[in-house]
Structures are given as C-alpha cells and as structure tokens.
From TrEMBL:
InterPro entries cross-referenced by the UniProt entry: LpxI (IPR053174), LpxI_C (IPR010415), LpxI_C_sf (IPR043167), LpxI_N (IPR041255)
Gene3D superfamilies noted in UniProt: 3.40.140.80, 3.40.50.20
Protein name: UDP-2,3-diacylglucosamine pyrophosphatase
Pfam family, one: LpxI_N
Annotated ranges, domain LpxI C-terminal: 155-291
Domain of life of the native organism: Bacteria
Organism name: Methyloceanibacter stevinii
C-alpha cells in the first residue's frame, strides 16, 4: 500500500488490515483509534470484538460486538476474547492508571494476581512490556496498530502545504536528541524547542497539557524572545511500540496553534495519526506544518 504524501491527498476508501485474517480483539482505551481499527477490519471482512474499559473507551465501540469491563476484570477480558475466537489482539487508546478503590477483582484477576501486583511499580514502558508479555503468555498474538492498519502511520516528508524552515529543522534536530535522551529514563515522548531553547518537555501530563503549558509560558513572556517553536514526538528508546505508539491528531494541531508553534515533526513510520483528513485540515487552516522525519534525522 502506498502512503499519502501530498498535502491535498485523500485516504483510500477501504483501509485494509494486514497480518490478521482471523477474528481481531481490540482492547480499547480513550480516543478514536479503536473504532478506526474496527471499521478497517470490518471493511476487510475481519470479525472484531472490542473490549472497552469503562470510563476510558468511547461509547462508539457499541456499534461493534463489544464487552465493557472494569479495571481488574481479567477473567472477563479472556472470556470475551475466547468466546469471539480472538487470538489476534490490538491494545489501543489512552488510559489513566486507576486508583486501587476502582479496581474490581474477578476470579481471573485472582489467578493473575502476581501480574497485577507487578503493575504497581515501574514506569510506563516497563508496565506496558509486562502487559504485552502477559497476553502473549496466555496464547494471544499482540499486534501494533500500525501493523494492523499501516494507514495510521505518519509517512516520511511534509504532509501539509507549509514545510519546515531551516530554523525549524534545527529545532527539530535538537528536539529529537532531547526526546531520545530523556526517553532512556522513561520520561515522555515529546518536546517543544524554539530557537534552540527548550520550552517544554512532556511528562505524566501528556502532550496536550504540555502544549497548554507552552501557550501559558508565551503569554507570560517567559519564552526569552524565542521563535515560534516546534513540537517533536517520537518513541522512547526501547519502547514497547505495539501498545504505546506516540499519536497526533486534531487536538494536537489545535493546541500547537494555540501555543503559537510553527509546526509538528514526528518520527516517520513510528507515530500514529488519528483522523488524518481533519488533522491536516486544521494544520493547513492554522498555517502549521506536519513533517514525518526519516530515521537518519531522528537518530542523528
């Protein structure tokens, strides 16, 4: 499948899944990606069953065969997947670590207690790797969203009408180095650099909140007279990308515009884009660029 490159290009009408021919299980958190994957699977005649986490997944999942679960209902997850014949699995969408009082333990969770206790410690990367390993040990094949639906991956090159300037490229190069260095400590997937100055680094608050912080920094005149700045997103070194790929979407563009940035650069083929057309529409309206950086630029 060829990727979209031009700013005015359109996605293919039938998004084709790859690597999965049997029923596909989708464990869904927040956002539009779970439903996008389910739609693509349905268009490709691949049966799906969505397991939605209550308080996280969107009610749109109810357009498909689905099961709602609460945190801790491990047995219910396995039961839903097994009854649907799902051995191929995608875990997608944002989640918030639950408070212990909101965890509901079922019999399956009791059997998986050592695994659940292990999730109380460690950073996101370590926890997500344990989750993947847990499902694999129980006979499931865990796929990344980009493996199942390559159309979700940001391609190389400029996607928008505007392209990054030489100054933007310099900020991008520094930002990729910063994200890569901090990623070794399991800290964030994003940074904002302006004229070689670090405006913000992503931590537990997430990209949108980080961009809101950038906007506030500029409003208060604390950006040291720098240029507009660039948001960069990329996976951390050694990150379990099957369940935690960085993502951009319409909200990213709106927040970047509010922060007065010149654009967004991401690691090509390693970052997801939700709602492609709307994301590009907003970027073009707000005069932002979106750039997919090849590996020789992200790893320089």
């Amino acid at each position: 499948m060829s990727h979209r490159r031009a700013a005015d290009s359109q996605p293919s009408e039938a998004l084709k899944t790859t690597k999965v021919t049997g029923p596909l299980g989708i464990i869904a958190g927040r956002g539009s990606l779970p439903v996008m994957i389910a739609n693509a699977a349905r268009a490709d005649n691949v049966p799906v069953h969505i397991v939605g986490i209550q308080g996280e997944a969107d009610s749109e999942i109810e357009r498909f065969p689905h099961t709602w679960i609460k945190w801790g209902e491990v047995g219910k997850v396995f039961s839903a997947l097994d009854k649907s014949g799902c051995k191929d699995l995608v875990i997608i969408g944002g989640v918030t670590r639950p408070h212990i009082k909101n965890v509901r333990i079922d019999f399956g969770a009791v059997k998986a207690l050592p695994f659940l206790l292990s999730l109380r410690k460690g950073g996101d990367d370590r926890i997500l790797s344990r989750i993947v390993r847990f499902f694999e040990q129980n006979g499931y094949r865990v796929h990344g969203a980009g493996d199942v639906l390559p159309e979700l991956l940001v391609p190389e090159g400029t996607l928008t009408r505007l392209s990054p300037s030489a100054d933007d490229k310099a900020d991008m190069a520094l930002a990729f180095k910063v994200v890569r260095a901090l990623g070794q400590f399991d800290i964030g997937q994003a940074a904002v650099i302006a004229s070689g100055y670090v405006l913000a680094l992503e931590a537990a608050e997430g990209t949108d909140a980080m961009l809101e912080r950038c906007a506030e920094i500029k409003r208060r005149g604390r950006s040291h007279g720098t240029g507009p700045g660039v948001l960069v997103k990329a996976p951390k070194p050694g990150q379990e990308e099957r369940v935690d790929m960085p993502t951009i979407g319409p909200e990213t563009m709106l927040k970047a515009a509010e922060a007065g940035l010149s654009g967004v650069a991401v690691a090509a083929q390693r970052v997801l884009i939700a709602d492609y057309n709307r994301t590009l529409e907003i970027a073009n309206e707000r005069k932002l660029f979106i750039y997919g950086a090849p590996q020789e630029e992200t790893d320089a």
